[in-house]
Design a protein that fits this description.
The protein is an all-alpha fold. The protein is built from 14 helices and no strands.
Length: 350
């Protein structure tokens, strides 16, 4: 377990450092910041007092250079990029996320943690609600289809599986066009009506109305493929010899499914569920942008557009930690739910 923790931490460090390099475009973003500093200080000199304006051009230039050098030193931009990148990495690993360069929270804070925490509830509301419904519906639908192999519904699901090749935002555009632009039944986007209702019940109804289209888009993009995948998975386990033996003994179908089909597939089900839960942190970048949903995905999209490195790295490092912790905990869960897995066997069959 100790070795596994070390390897997971090493993976996090490598992934976060690559994110730092990519988000900073190999140091090019810092060059942009240097240019912005020089431009800002130069603009400040345009509004100086008459005494400062009496300085010669050379004196003003030297003063600007000194002020620029002081600001670059304060921000650490006077150091080589390799050193700056390692400092960014240290701050990210220790969760010192710092302040955003361009993006600001609704309350006026530039602290990255405040920005991310402010945008987390809308993402959990949309992405969590949609994916939880999708997960359990497809799981039970696939289990039902595995009992009706070759039926009309089974063939229909297989025929509609290629529709999942289109992403959720693609369906979202058509849903907005039909139900918002043409039929005027649902809003184009946003989280609630503007201005937001004051009464809690009216606010909840407005939120539910705005959730319909993005949730439907997520369902349309993944329902048939997920159902087909789970259905195939259950069919594979349904054809095992021990399942046939249980049926031959006359066990009820529900007992056979619970003991001999769901139990061996439980580790895979738990893994998919756990990975789905932690991916809620990243949100849906394009889907949230299409529906103007104020979540983490849209915030990350804005951060990428503005080259806001602290926000990009902050979101990535938290997801990396969540992923590593989930992978580590799943090892213990496998040993609890799957009787075929044992800890400490040193690779010897049980």
């Amino acid at each position: 377990m100790g070795v596994r923790l070390v390897l997971l931490f090493f993976t996090i460090v490598v992934g976060v450092y690559l994110t730092v390099l990519i988000a900073n475009m190999g140091g090019y973003v810092d060059e942009i910041r240097r240019g912005e500093i020089r431009e800002r200080i130069g603009a400040q000199f345009a509004t100086l007092s008459p005494e400062m304006r009496q300085l010669s051009a050379e004196e003003r230039k030297q003063l600007i250079e000194r002020m620029v050098a002081l600001e670059e030193e304060r921000l650490g931009l006077n150091q080589p990029f390799i050193i700056r990148s390692l400092r960014y990495l240290e701050d990210a690993i220790t969760l010192r996320l710092g302040k955003a360069q361009q993006i600001m929270s609704d309350k006026g804070s530039r602290e990255v943690k405040n920005i991310l925490l402010e945008r987390l509830p809308p993402t959990l509301m949309l992405w969590g609600f949609s994916n939880l419904i999708l997960f359990f519906i497809t799981l039970f639908a696939a289990l039902s289809l595995s009992r009706r192999y070759g039926s009309v519904v089974d063939k229909l699901i297989i025929a509609l599986t290629p529709t999942s090749a289109a992403p959720a935002w693609f369906y979202g555009l058509f849903l907005i066009l039909i139900f918002a632009a043409v039929l005027h039944l649902l809003p184009f986007g946003g989280m609630v009506d503007a201005p937001p209702p004051d009464h809690p019940l009216e606010y909840a109804l407005s939120l539910a109305k705005h959730l319909i289209l993005p949730t439907t888009a997520v369902m349309l993009s993944s329902f048939f493929l997920n159902t087909y995948n789970w259905r195939t998975f259950f069919l594979i386990y349904s054809s095992e010899d021990y399942v046939e033996m249980a049926k031959a003994k006359g066990l009820p179908d529900q007992d056979v499914e619970r003991r001999y089909i769901l139990r061996p597939t439980l580790p895979t089900i738990i893994t998919n569920f756990a990975l789905m839960v932690i991916t809620l942190w990243t949100g849906a970048i394009i889907l949230e942008t299409v529906f103007n949903w104020p979540g983490l995905g849209r915030t990350l999209y804005r951060a990428i557009g503005h080259f806001d490195v602290p926000v990009i790295v902050g979101s990535t490092v938290i997801y990396a930690y969540l992923l590593a912790i989930t992978v580590f905990v799943l090892d213990f869960i496998y040993a609890l739910v799957d009787p075929r897995v044992r800890i400490g066997g040193e690779g010897k069959p049980v």
